[in-house]
Every structure is written in C-alpha cells, then in structure tokens.
Amino acid sequence: MVTTAMASETPGTSAVPFSSATEAGDTGTALVTKLGTARTAGSWIGADGKPVVAVTDEQAAAMVKQAGAEPKMVSHSMNALKAATATLRAAPRVAGTAWAVDYRTNRVMVEADSTVSASDWAALKQVAAGIGGFVQMQRTGGTFTPRLNGAQPILSTGGRCSAGFNVTNGQTDFILTAGHCGPANTIWFDEGQGGNQQLGTTINTQFPGNDFSLIQYANGKAGDNADVVAIGNGQGVRITGSADPTVGQKVFRSGSTSGLHDGTVTALNATVNYPEGTVTGLIQTNVCAEPGDSGGPLFSEGIALGMTSGGSGDCTTGGVTFFQPVTRAMAALNVQLIVTKQAATGTQAATGTQGASAAPSASATHSTIAPSAASPGSTAAVGSSDTSLVARLTDTRNVGPGLLVIGGSLIALVGTRYFRAEQDRKAYQRYYSATWG
User: Fold this and answer.
1) How far is residue 219's CA from residue 9's CA, in Å, rounded to a whole number?
2) Is the peptide bond before 291 cis (omega within 30 degrees of 0)?
3) What mean pLDDT is reported for the chain?
4) Model confidence over 371-392: pLDDT tens digits?
C-alpha cells in the first residue's frame, strides 16, 4: 500500500543497553535457542527494555546473566507448555475459544468468548484440569471473529478488505493481506475509483489453518513508495524489513475503521477457533481493532510483523487482536517485502528483503502522530510520480480538492454504499460458513 508521506519509527527510549526492541528480542530468542526448550520457557522484553528469559535451572540462569539479559526461574519448561497446548488442540474443537502460552506467568491461557455454551466451557475445563494447574481458564467479552474490511480499502464481490504489505517474487508485485478476505481467483477493485477499476486478483490463499493471501497487481507492479504503509491523515510508516515479534514488544496497527493504535505483544503461537475454522501460530496483542481493520499491517520500529486476523472487543472498551506473522506468510508464498534502502548518495533503490537488519531512518523529522502520545516514528514528505491505483487512493493532493467537489454527493451516496456493503458482507459470511463451518 502506498501513500504520499512516510514515517520511520524511533526505537523505544527504555531499551538500554539494547538499541531497539528488535535487538533485545533477538538476544532473548538466541538464548532460548542456545539453552533449549527443556531448560527455558520463552523470552520477552521487560519494562526496562532488556530481554528476560524464563529458565528452569540455576546454570541456565547464570548463562542468561552473562549474556546481559535477565533470567526468571519458572516451574514449567517450554516442552511442558507445548504439550499442554497440544492436548487442547487434540480436544473437540469449540468455536469461540483461543489459547496461547503466557511466557511472563509461565501459564497457558485459555479464553472463551460470549458464544461458547456452558456445557462446552465445562468440557474444556475438564481437559484443562487433566493437564495441570498452570492452565488458566477465563471468559472474555465479545466474540472471536475475523476483522472484515480494512486499512487501505479494496473491494470485491465478496466484500471489502485491506492491503497489508507490498511484496514481490522478483518479477511480479503483490499485496499481502488476510486469507479470510476471500478465496483464490477473487477479483479486487480500487474503491477509490468507485469500485470500477480492477486492482488485482487473489492467486493464493490459506484460511483457516493460516490467515494470509496474495493479491497479484493487475499491471504487475506496486508502483513507487510501495514500502510505505498508511497510518492516516496523509502520513505513513516506511517499512525497512520484517521480523518475528517478541512478547512485551511495543507495536502499532493501522486500519481504516479505527485508524492507528498501539499496544504490546502478549503472546506468540496463539490458536484461535473462529466460527470459520481454526487458525494457529498467531501473534496475540492487546492492540484494539474493529470490523473493518482486517488485513491491515502490524509493525514496530519500521519492521513488518504481521497482518490483522481477528479478535474480540473494540477500540472503545479494548480487546484482544490476533495477527498472522508476516515472516511465516512470506516463507510459505516465496515472496519478499518491497523496501527501499537509502544509499550513501541519498538515492533510493527498490529491493526485497526478509531480514530485519535495515535500520530505521535517523534523518527524518519527528512528529507525534500516534494515539496516546505514542509516536510510531518520524514523518517526512515522499516525492513520487507514481500513478498506481493504490497510490492515487491515498494521495492527499487528490483527496482534498475532491472532497470539496463531491461532499454533497457523498451524503446522498452513503446510504446506498452502506446497503451494498452489508449485502457483500452477508454474502461473504454465507460463503465461508458453507466452506469452513
């Protein structure tokens, strides 16, 4: 997705002596890999920005300290925690439930939304009791559903969804978005052009199981500034690479319904039993989301992390939101992010990368553009002669004058668009209820 302004995020100020959350997370992950899953139970970023590693013996704790991280003694290893989730996965499937390993409390957290019956909840409690006391059960408000529509609106006969990140296979460019947006061969149109101009076609989708899909651009190219994701008000964040997140990491999510919101990663490898089917390996966060944010990008420090899958709650009362990891999707689809590296001469060269080593730009001007006074980075104008569909969709030079001209007509059209959107949404839900229910 493309816009006419960009932002490169600033590292968290508390990350001492680690220069960024990515570096702290990598340190914790490396220690877990070195020590093994029998002696550790995950890692996360502490309040001081330093990595914390859960360990099961004193020798492992000493090695963690020597590496500059903080050890935390726990009772259950990652092997035990994974065995617990495997038992839950083998039990009869209950739509409206979700579970994930909480590294910080050394527990497996099981949640059920408002649709889960008392009998199903009681049966799942029996399964949990057979595993052990470290499996904690709790109810949550709302329902676990995929978040339809999204960040940069694109339209199909099945409804609206959102562009996540632009990716490439080296020859053709694509939009990476949520898998529940629609099946293969779905044709997408540019909503900014009245829904009449073809944008691309879904050529690969995985849902349930995973939740990602690949939309091939009709003209094969994403255009200039394809490394920028929109965050609203004509601004955007320049994406410099991709990585897997760390528990405790501060993250940002962008979506057209609720805009830009921030929060933290609370768990990894989460499992969600949507009504349409079960999705595993998700990133769990406390970032809010609403219907209309589906497929939108999750990022931190200019690094792509995932695409909005679903969750419960809203941005008024809060809730839980799950994301498809971007690295897992790209590996399965054999594509790479489209990013722009700054050369020493100041020129830009488009390239694809799947690494997270590219540092955010340090030369841009800082601007507080995120909610709750939490800035995702710095903003600067991005010059572009791009005429691609998604670029025109978010070009403020076009949007401003256009709104003055079409303001009156928009009021008259909103009722019609609402009914059409509702019809599309119901058609989508009927399709997946029949296919995945």
Assistant:
1) 31
2) no
3) 76
4) 333 345 433 333 333 334 344 4
Q: Domain limits of the chain?
A: 1-8+80-395, 21-73
Q: Where are the beta strands (DSSP E) in 275-397?
A: 277-285, 297-300, 303-314, 318-325, 336-342, 348-353, 365-366, 378-381
Per annotation, catalytic residue among 113, 211, 293, 395: 211
CA atoms of 383 and 388, how far apart (whole Å):
14
Assigned token pair, 100: 């994930």
The dihedrals phi and psi of 127, each to the nearest 5 degrees, come to -60, -45
- Annotated catalytic residue, options 43, 156, 242, 294: 294
Q: What angle do CA 31, 78, 24 make, to 5 degrees?
A: 30
Domain 1-8+80-395's class? mainly beta
Our answer to whether residue 211 is catalytic in this structure is yes
Percentage helix, strand, coil, to 5, in the chain?
25, 35, 35
Q: Is 294 a catalytic residue?
A: yes
Q: What is the pTM of this model?
A: 0.74
Q: Which of 259, 324, 250, 322 is nearest to 293 (CA)?
A: 259
